[in-house]
Every structure is written in C-alpha cells, then in structure tokens.
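Lecture 7 notes. Example A: sequence first, then its structure tokens.
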Amino acid sequence: MTLLIINADDYGLTEATSRAILDCHEHGVLTSTSVLVPAPAFASTIGLLAEHPNLGVGVHLALVGEDPPVLSAREVPSLVDAQGRFHISWKQFAAAAVRGRIDPADVEKELTAQIHAVQAEGVPLTHLDSHQHLHEWPTLWPVIQRLANVAKVRAVRSTQAKGLGPMSVLGKLTAARAKRAGLLTPQSFAGFSHSGSLTEPELLKLIEAVPSSSASVEIGCHPGAVQDPERYRYDWSYHWAEEASGLQSSAVRNRITSAGLRLGTFGDLR
C-alpha cells in the first residue's frame, strides 16, 4: 500500500497559518508540517504542536525570505543584506553564492540554530526540507547531511516528480545522495507546480494520479486562514483558505481511501 504524506510548509508564518495547519490535521487529511523557525509566529505557536502528537514535524530550513535569520547579522554576515535580513529569494542567494559571498560556515551555524530552536521545545523531528527547496542544492548538501546526522533526523524531502525539469533533476540527485548517506526520501513529490493553488479539484487530481507502483509520495501544500492580517507582508498570491478547505474535504478523504493510499508521515518511511 502506498504511503501518502501530506505536508504543510511554513508552520509559524503567522499565528492564523499555524492554527489552520493544525485544523487541517485534526479535521482533515494533513499528516505532516514543516516549521519555519525565523517566521514571526514561531515562538507563539511552537508549543501547540505538543497537543498533536500524531502530526509529523520537520524543520523548513530557511536561508531566504522576508524575515531575518535566527542568529544575529554579526554572527552570519554573509547571509544577510544591509538591513540584516535574508536575501529575498533563491535568485539573490544564488547570485551571491556564485560570487563567493555565501560562507558555508554561516549556513551551517544558522541552520543548526533553526533545528535547535525546534528541538529545544521538545518536538520530535521526522524530516528536514527547506524554504524554496534550497536544501537540494548540491553545494549545500554536505551541510544538510551533517545536520540530519547530528539531529538524528532520518528523512529529507526530494522533489522527484514528472514534468518539473531542473527541480526534478535536483530531487533525483537529492534522493541518490540521501540514500548513500543512509537517509530516507519519499519516492516522489507532488504539488510543486500547484504551489499556493492546491484547491480541492487539484488535490483530487493529484491523488488520482498517484501511481499504484509508488511506495511513498509526498504532497506539499500551503494552507492558511481566510482572514489573516499578519500575512500582508508575504505577497505570495497563495490561495491559503482554499487549500485548507480542500484538505478538510470529505471528497478528498474518500478519494484517498478509494485509491488505497495509506496516510502517514516521514517517520513512516522505510
């Protein structure tokens, strides 16, 4: 029976986002989430995870985005701009890296701090992934592998999927490197091309398309609340509430059952 992991990124983005993720787990088919430690609502919502012991929890490692790093700009100077914030996207990060302006030691220090912040709350970790999938970059993989080993995390995301071009290639490379390192990855990934728009109809299509030959599949999603004033600073044009509605849909749950899929977490990978 195929293991289906449905993972929500960006836990901690805002308080309403975190609570929407928990609602999708409690009342829907969401099985897993990834915590965005530098986000503003991390401190106020990380404690809520203890009330949901069956929810798989990973760290959504961040080196880019609208928020500052966990460590100070003085501690990780190569990761921040003049305002002490991360580069806004992977494109700016890549440009800085190509110019030799990203210090791998800064990367390791910052990502270690993010993992420690979750573990310090007593939250067991099932996996690692990353904001804008930077953990799959070949130059960053040695750091990710060391962090997983130190944190005793057994699984990482790999974006292996048909039709994703370079991202699928990176996903396959990640899966191969993970296997050599003794780490686990789902056999395939779905939802990348639907990022921010994984509404009920699209979710039903993804579930229908899961091949019976797959041992495990991750579907990535981004649920959120209908009203969320704190989210204004993230201009991502996501359909947050529609994704949350789809994840709590009885039609989606019934489709998973009829397809013979087994809901689970990264901790269930074998």
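Example B, a different protein, same format:
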Amino acid sequence: MRYAVILAAGWGERLWPITSTRPKPLVPLPGGETLLTRLMRQLRGLVDGFLVVVRGDEFGDMVRRSVVSAGFSVYFAVQEEPRGTGDAARVGVEALPRGVDEVLVVNGDLLVSDELLRAVAETGSPSLVGVPSDEPWNYGVLLEHNGCLSSIREKPSDAPRGSLINTGVYLLPRNELEEALQGIRPSPRGELEITDAVTLLARRMCIRVVKGSGFWLDIGRPWDLFEAYKLLWRERFGDSSQAVVEGEVESTAVIHGPVYVAEGAVIRSHSVVEGPAWIEGEVGPFARIRPWSFLLRESRAATHTEVKASILMMRAKAPHLNYVGDSILGEDVNLGAGTITANLRFDHRSVKVNLKGKRIDTGRNKLGAIVGDRAQTGINVSLFPGVRIGAYSWINPGLVVDRDIADCVHLRNGYEVRDLRERLGCPQYVLRARDKVSKWLTGYKP
C-alpha cells in the first residue's frame, strides 16, 4: 500500500507578507485551490491515502481546516518544533497506518505538473524526481551513476546550467526510509534534512533518478507567484487566443484576446480587458485590465483603475483611480483613491528587495508592491518599486512609501511608525511573527 506523506509544517519566511496570515502551503491559486489542495488532488489515484504533517499552532489548524473542507480524507501528524524537513518526514512516517509499505514524500508548497508526479509513481520505489535548472546553484543538485542517485550536493557554485536539481518528490520503501530518518544528524544550519536520509539510502540501494517532464516550481519569493499563475493559465488554456466567458460582460465592455471570465464575474460598462487575463471578480465600470492580470473571487478593479500583470487575491479592492502594476494585493486589501504602485526604477535597472535582512536583486525590470492581507492605504499614496506592506497595516493619506513596512503598524506623519496593534485588529499569531520580521526590515522602528 502506498501513502503520500505531505510536508506542510513550513511557514515560508521569504514569502512575507503573503505568509503573514497563512502558511506557505495555503498560498491561494486561481480557481479556488491552494498549493496544498491542488497537490492532493493531483495525487488522487497515484496513492492509497494521505498523511499531512502540520505545525502545532494556528497555522497547523488552518491546514487541517483547509484540507478537510476541500473534501479529503486524511491523517495528520504534528511537528511540534520546526527542526527541519528530515524531522517532519520522520514524524509523518512514524504516524502512518500499518500496512503502508511505500511512501511518496513531497513538500506541500510545490507547484508541479501532473506529468511529473505520474512519472515517479509509474517508476516505482525507490526513486526521486529531478528537473533541469538554469540556476542549479540555488538548489540541491542530483549526482547519478548509471541512473542511480550517488549524492545530493546542496547549492554547488560550480554546477553547470541544465544540471538536474532535487524537486523534493521521493518514492521510497517505508521501513528503510524510517530507519534512515532516525540515523541523520543536524546539518550545518542546525536542521535535520530529508536529503541526508535520502543520501544514506542511496548508499544501500539504487534510488532511480527520474527526469521530470512538465513543470516544477518552488515558490520561494513573492514574485515567483507571477510565474506560478502563468503556468496555471497555460495548463488550462494552452495557446488558445479565444475568450472563455462564463460570467457577465456588459454590452459596452470590450474583451481582447484570451480572457477567462469565470462564473459570477462581471465586466462592467466601458471597461477594456486585454488577455491573457483571469477574471473571477468585478471589473469596472471604466477600468482597464492589461495582460497577465488575475482577479480572484470577489476582488474588484473599478472606476478609472488600471491593472497590469498583477494579482488581486480574494476581496482585494482597487476601487477608484488606482494604478496596480506588477503587484500583488493580498486578501481584503483596500487601496484608497489615487493610490499608485510604481513598478519601474528611474534608471530602468532591475528591482531590488530586502529578503530576510539581505538586499536581493529580483532580476525583474518591473516589480510593483507586495501588500499583505487586510492592509489599507489612504488616498493619494505612492508605493515605490519592490516595496512590501505587512498584513493589517495602515498607510496614511498622501504618503510616499519607499521601504518595507512591517505587519500590524500604522504609518503616519511622514515615516513615523505607530504601533496600534489592538486598533488594527491583528491576530496574535501575526503579532508573534511580526517581531521576527521587523528585524529584517531596514529602518524599521517599533
């Protein structure tokens, strides 16, 4: 009997502020799924059951509710302390029901194609999946001999482009995996790594390296979501140039190219939508939606608002006189009239962001703002390229924001940050994470 052990106990620190209010496996996708529920749907028919490893806190409860409400019958195991993927896998494997002899271990925060998962399932145990990468030095590189895994090198600087990287998808015999997981020791960064257990197994048996087809994406940074949403568009609609209209398009609205208007969505009068675009919410009147924009359920881009290559999550609102370019608005975000997201530097160089206390080049010539759930801006606010606004935060009218703002703060009087956590309604789990996040942000003063 084969079970999937899905590792869903991670937070996703680099995805802040999208993960201020949800664990990384629950990042929303167009169509109403999350990374985790999509993965479980894909695995139906390939495994006989599921065990999901969750955190022992509010985020773990969120995962439980999400999986159950999506209709899955599943076992859960709790990783009480964040000790690494090896410890999470050990917790999961030890909690499996009797009779399970094959384990498909997979990270619950991956976006993968059906073909990739089928490839490893059809190869059988023991095996793992690798995909070629243009940036293998950012991942674990698979070294093989005669089709069998030799070792996994973590982030080798000398790896040539096109090297096979580890996808985090393993199909292994239960008893041998459990023994290997019990034998690993903390890595240099102090965590128990599942890759160490896999390497131990590779010394005892041939673990076949399967070259995955289709796509694989580890969504590690906020701007990776743009590529993820594009992959899902292409998966569903391919290269079609036709519109698919299931909702309402008023008579004076104009649609150009491949535009998906979902059931319940509305394109109001005198609005223009240019595809590819995915509309589940409300557009207009007098709005313009430019290519590669995604408006999820109950979101709204209304009067004299322009949205370009951006994501508006559930109930996010750009209601009047807004420009949202190459940006992500989290759930229930509300932009005041005249709020503008700048997405291009004066010197036209690629946009840099602060990521866990380091200045990172995104490689993107255009990148707007990343705004966490339930944040609000006042009228006439300007957000610089690459700025991130924390969940539940308020930005006072008329401000120009050129740096990241932590969760649960009120920005007012220029750059003075006032802590109004009770008034802002921030949940305790967001407040606990805020203290850690604030240390990453340049110039942040509580």
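Note on Example B: The first strand starts at residue 2 and ends at 7. Residues 14 and 395 are 23 Å apart (CA to CA).
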